Amino acid sequence: MAKTAREAEFTAYVASRSGWLRKVAYLLCGDWHRADDLVQESITKLYVNWPRAGRVENVDGYARKVLVNTFLAEQRSSWWRRTTRTGVEPDTESVSVDLDASLDLRKALAALPPRQRATVVLRYYCDLTIDQAAEALGCSSGNVKSQTSRGLEALRTTLAVRPTTAERTS
Known about the structure:
The protein is mostly helical. It is 72% helix and 0% strand. The chain has nine helices and no strands.
């Protein structure tokens, strides 16, 4: 395939899937700015390996694996721990959702260790099977099962409805 055709194919792919990659990155890291950085780094890696990516059966799976591996590699390095988060979210479209529940879930998801967060996002947001998630993470199916189980238990514990003082006294 000629270089210009390959570049056009890459550009079309990124244009169509960048929003999806950004959402997955946000769920992994919990910060829109950091998600943008993760997506940019992943797209760069994808571009370098585009001839290989173009030959795989599932390009979305390949791109997702690059994104998850980039996130996990970043978690192992110490540079991201030195950055200061402002807590200011960028302007986004308003959607009629339970904002409090959404914020609680995001906070609980952000509290999970990186591998648990990655497995929960891959299994329940990306809707991957255990085997597909294991392939994306480069680990065994049993590891995905245990990480998912621990992650879900931590989410349930964090998000459990606790009775208020008034409810306990009545």
